[in-house]
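User: Could you check the structure of this?
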Amino acid sequence: MQSKRKEIFSLLRMISKHAKRVLAVSLIVTLVLPVTVPVQSGTVYAEANQTAGYYMDKIVFGNTESEQEHNFEGDFTNVISGGLGESARVSLPRIPEDIQGGELTFTMNVDPVAQNYFTLKFWGDDASSYKSIVYINGEQIGYRRNGDYEAINIGISKGLPNRFYYNTIMLPLEATQGQETVQIIVRTFSGDFGGKVNMLSRGYYNAYTHTQSYLNVNGETQGVKFQDENSLLRADITDSDKQAIIDGYTQSQIKLFNDHSATVDRSAGAKLSIVRYEDDLRFYANALHYDWSPAKTPELKKAALERIFKVIDNHVKDYYGNTRIVTRGGHQGDWGGYYGALGEAFCVPGFARSTLYHGGRRR
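Assistant: Sure, the predicted structure tokens are below.
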């Protein structure tokens, strides 16, 4: 009887151990299963592969079917037969003329999750100083001028003769996340955003959206690289012609120096400009360093230095009359201080130090 009881308890203990193992396995499966099994939710995931040619979408400008598929609108634009006979669109001057020409408006497919890129195709023989800027859903992408994100074309002229080239920018994530299509506008502006667009723009050939930063266009006609590099260079000129150019430029600098001397001598309150990018006083002081300077004798050098001192004195008088000029004088006066140019005027060659005391005058 006692031996029977031992067998029963031993059997129960074995069953208990087995049950614990089963329970542990069941708990693990319960915890892991929600992670490994796909769960239906509102999140949209990007597809693993893009369409043919490694792009999400492509519009061929000037192709009626392609433009219709992308809801294209192009007031003040024209279709042309461009590089290698491919169709393209150009932006025309508006009526009346404005700083912006006609614009290309269309829709493009994008990936709702991944980082998207936008590429435009250009012909390398086109010459235009106009800037091409991309807008997405009405918002400008990047900067108009230099910056981290430049215009998609900053005004390249004949950048790649006899071939096509492609410029790519990133599309802002906030404009594409959760979206399958976006509106794109390509606008053509004058190079300085101040002048009028009064000529045809460069040609716009194709536009692409893609999720790889590199766009594979191996299947497209690209043109031919010129084998003779000399064909890209302008014919050389004779040595005498080169010297004539140098002499002409030198004479223009001598004339400018003499004109500045006459300006300062004209009145007691005369000044030379220290406005940034004009820098007449800096030019006058730096000219004393060069062999072509008209101030060749000690007397002429002294006279030139006295003019520099006179100009500095008159600018200082202006400052005491209106101290706000220090940051508001002329163009970009607050970039390092408007009166920094006065200090730069003292950076004249070593002979100046020995003539500062000339005639009993000390600085």
